[in-house]
Design brief:
By secondary structure, the chain is of the alpha+beta class. The protein is 39% helix and 24% strand. It is built from five helices and eight strands. A five-stranded antiparallel sheet has the order 3-4-5-6-8, sandwiched between helices. It has a three-stranded antiparallel sheet with strand order 2-1-7, with helices on one face.
């Protein structure tokens, strides 16, 4: 496990204009994720927290989720491997570490978006993050990990994505009224 600092700084304007920086690549991947994918600590942050809770509870097998605005991620058990669409930077975090970063982002917002520095933990960065994630997944290579099939994915963990695409998973329990 590694530790570093993450810095939240308002740049004026709206929430999406805030700057989130970190002192190491692994934590910077979390910063990219929050800045590019969540942007405003509101409902999107709550959705991500619910996703992280489900990830910790259900520990799904390895899957590639895809890319959002800028950051892509893979999941396996309670780990997330974060990458950017435009570089080879990688960061490996546990769901608990990602949760702590999101809660720090919420605290920054609730404190009136005043400059704030917090300590952040992450598992690994760069090639080591990739090596560890592949080891955790049980696959031989990251290329062997398939994109998630939302039709068969765990609805507790991936329900938000299934809802976004209007997919009812094959393993969903449908209750008749």
């Amino acid at each position: 496990m590694m530790k570093t600092e993450m810095h939240f700084k308002p740049r004026g304007g709206e929430h999406g204009d805030d700057v989130i920086l970190a002192d190491a690549m692994g934590a910077m991947m979390l910063a990219y994720w929050m800045h590019c994918e969540i942007q405003v600590p509101d409902d999107a942050l709550d959705e991500e927290l619910s996703f992280l809770d489900a990830l910790e509870e259900r520990k799904p097998p390895a899957a590639f989720i895809g890319y959002g605005n800028y950051v892509g991620y893979w999941v396996c058990r309670n780990y997330l491997l974060l990458s950017t669409a435009y570089s080879d930077d990688l960061g490996l975090v546990t769901a608990a570490q990602a949760r702590a970063a999101l809660l720090a982002y919420r605290a920054y917002d609730e404190a009136g978006r005043k400059p704030m520095t917090v300590e952040i933990e992450y598992e690994a960065e760069g090639e080591e993050a990739l090596r560890l994630f592949v080891e955790i997944s049980g696959y031989k290579s990251i290329k062997d990990i398939r994109r998630i099939d939302l039709k068969t994915a765990d609805p507790v963990v991936f329900g938000r994505l299934q809802d976004a695409y209007g997919i009812v998973p094959e393993n969903a329990v449908i209750e008749d009224s």
